[in-house]
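Q: What does the assembly look like in three dimensions?
Context provided by user:
Components: two
Sequences:
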Amino acid sequence: MSLPPPIEESLIVFENVSRFYGEVLGVNRVTLSIPPGITSLVGPNGSGKTTLMNLMTGLVRPTRGAIKILGIPPDDPERLFRLLGYSTQFDSFPKGLTGFQFVYSFLRLFGTTHSECEALAWKSIERVNLVEAANRKVAGYSKGMRQRIKLAQSIAHDPRVLVLDEPLNGLDPLVRAETISLFRELAAEGRHVIVSSHILHEVDMISDQVILLSNGYVVAEGKIQGVRSEISDHPMQVLIRCNRPGALASKVFEQDSVVEARIHADGGGLLVKTRDPDRFYRLLNHIAMNGIEIESVAPADDNVNSVYEYLIGAEESTK
Amino acid sequence: MMTLWWAQIVAVIRLEMKKTFFAKRGLWVYLLAAAPVLIWAGHSINMMMIRDHQRDVATEHPLATETLESIQHGMSRADVEEKLGPPYSRRMVRTRRQDRAWLNYTDGESNYTFMFEDGELRGISKRQIYKCSIPQDSLIFATVFQFFYLRLAIFFGCVGVFMNLFRGELIDKSLHYYLLAPMRREVLLVGKYLAGLITTVVIFTTSTALQLWTMWLHFDRAAIDEFLRGPGWHQVAAYLGVTALACLGYGSVFLAAGLLFRNPIIPAATVLLWESANLFLPAALKKISVIFYLQSLCPVVAPPDKEMAAPLLLLVSSAEPTPPFLAITGLVVLTIAVLIAASFRARKLEINYGTE
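A: Here is the predicted structure of the complete assembly.
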């Protein structure tokens, strides 16, 4: 009988990690220990979420401190990336490749054979429901499809740790629901799924734990419930891109929790403020199935930022 | 481990080849490679047209050299035309004071022009018809090859291909896909370098071969065969080899520069300046350049520039050409040294597209 692995080999560990970009602070004095399951990094733009993910994956190096991913330092790519997959926020791809070629070609870098790579590529493309578009050029994909093919590429080698930077951005409600269910599936298999988001409501729905970041500092970590109750009084603003924003506005006003809805300046979307994001997203799923074509749902984030200001203010006031 | 590294290198080459061969931004590399081919093709077509014209004239107006030489000053135009027949071309200028005429004849070797004033032969000019020889063209080829093709076309071609291997992907924000693979950065560097090398070697050696072919296009088959039986094949092999070695050397320099500098113009200009100043550098410094080894390997020595100013000629220093074995070894050592230096940079490379 083999011995269970040491505890540090099942954790992602940051020990007093700081990263500065010249004079600019990326993250400062981060000490974390992340167990398996879905962990969300939450914070407003510029709070250090992406820096933390890039540090985790060796794309940037810490100015101070040490990082270990299941016992492996990020500067050992040969070992690390056999068990880690990273879907970055960069919406860019090598030129001229189809979705399948994109996933397949980077699998070949693992040194596996053509047939193995082909099988793994199709399996992951199937997992993100993109089989029909797999032989089309990535350049012609919609934002949501590009998100999904990036996800397929990051899970294709069956990693134990999955790092996903804003993976739900640009996804329509149905695909968003499917993707969240995929994250849950992956976490249920005992993997680490690290997701960044600046939508607290979103991470509320999917996370086992949350790490709240502000200005490069970890301001809170742990279960989400405590944080959630604090923000329930603060309406959240969402931009929905769709074909009939007027019709969508009349539908969403049927909900008590919607406090404001206005058609976007370009006429191609609707800005909605809601006090009950849960109900609002359920309504959107319903609407998407009833004739209004919803292209994307994204936070229109002045208000989310204000929520964080509120949270961070609360954090600071308790210090 | 070596098997894995090799599989990874091959995978990188496969990904890179498509980009380097068919990139829109690399179109000018093809134009650089095609430019000397077009020049030589133009030269050959021009020579063939001249030769055909001369042949037609000689056929239509056959004249013996002795007959043409028998024409004397003072003869009348009518006498000359009676003796030689009608010229293949003529020109007349009539003024109030004087009538002037020029009659052109040929014996196939030289062109004769007889100038008449008021019907009397006043001047005879004899010009040998220009004919190229393979050794003559080879000398011109050596000059074009060393001063344009090596120093500019291949040089800037390598700037375009090798600088983009890392820099281009940093600009396109797609380099991170490579850095997120279970692969040593050194392996990635070698893979990218080999992809660039294959691309440039294919493009530029093809161009060299086409240049030689187009240069010989206007010569008789027999003359070409004779040349090939002599130094010909050796020259062909040497030029192709030097082209490949130029891609090897310049490629490593510009791959490293693409990792070190954001703006390719600065390193390219610096290296160009250094390589151009090679002629004036002390013998020891000459050896720290790619062009020194390449010139040592060229089969025909390019003639010195006759129009170079005398003070500059005084500054020209000569270093004994390196023997081929040492020149090739020197270039390979230089390439490996530069690649090792580049691999240190690659290991420390971070993804921070915002600053690119």
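Follow-up: The CA atoms of residues 51 and 222 of chain B lie 16 Å apart.
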